[in-house]
Design a protein that fits this description.
Structural class of chain B: alpha+beta
CATH topology of chain A: Arp2/3 complex 21 kDa subunit ARPC3
Number of strands of chain B: 7
Helix content of chain B: 10-25%
Largest sheet of chain A: none
CATH superfamily of one domain in chain B: N-utilization substance G protein NusG, insert domain
Number of strands of chain A: 0
Shape of chain B: elongated
CATH architecture of chain A: Orthogonal Bundle
Strand content of chain B: 25-35%
Number of domains of chain A: 1
Radius of gyration of chain A: 16 Å
Number of helices of chain A: 6
Oligomer: heterodimer
CATH class of chain A: Mainly Alpha
CATH topology of one domain in chain B: mini-chromosome maintenance (MCM) complex, domain 2
Chain lengths: 177, 125
Amino acid sequence: MKKKTYFTALFGMLAAVAVTLSFLESLLPTAAFLPPGAKPGLSNLVNMFASSLWGLFPALGIAAIKACFAGITRGMTAFWMSLCGGVLSTFAMTLLLRHTRRFGFVGIGVIGAICHNFGQLCVAAVTVGNRSVLGYAPVLLLCALAAGTLTGLIFRAVLPALQRAADAFLHTKDRKG
Amino acid sequence: MKRKCFSKTDFFLIAAVLLIALAFWLPSLFGNGDVTAEVTVDGETVLKLDLQTIDAPREFPLDNGVVLLAEKQSIRVLSADCPDKLCVQAGALSRAGEVAVCVPNQTVVALHTANGQSEPDAITY
């Protein structure tokens, strides 16, 4: 019972961190050579950590909370784009984090970022009913490479500290990754 | 065995993604010549402009709150009533294959070469 309380508390804190990171990112101006709306996707770090600590469903929960925040602040389109991107990238990252060791953290970050962009692009293409949105795909791939490498490196750097904190907090050792 | 930060698989992954992205992206950089702008709302074409015939800057307000500004050889989204304004930030489009998208208003501005072929449309997904 106590363990469940700790889980709820830590889950809430992680969700808050994810929402805060995505809000801070939205304040960043877009560089001129990047497509409009390109962001480093730092809140994906939280999904990565939740899935390496607990697995798929809590990480999907974080993605859903992030999507609700996007929906409240930026409207229904943002909700669907955030949800599809977040869910797709969470599935991919959980698979890689928990079921194979072939990929390093950079590779997992890159695949997470590509899946996130792909999910969003699909929602955009369906919403506008026009395939020419896919013209963004190559440039989004390049952005995902940069953003994914960044999140992978940061994740590698902060993981030991996060795990120590989570272990102390949860008194558990049942993590993978 | 601990997970590596950057594995050999990562290297191949990044190289493959880079190649794919560049293969599709580079051709669009060389698109030039006469372009037509096609504006679609919810998949329906509402406006088609030959950008060569525009002599003075001209505004095209659409019914859904999106305002376009066409100039000689380029077109941009001047304003929109959506929350994020990504379509406005996309700036002026002048090359075939470039697009500005307003997802909340289901509006796409896409440039095609004058003979009706837009280079990225040759990509199949």
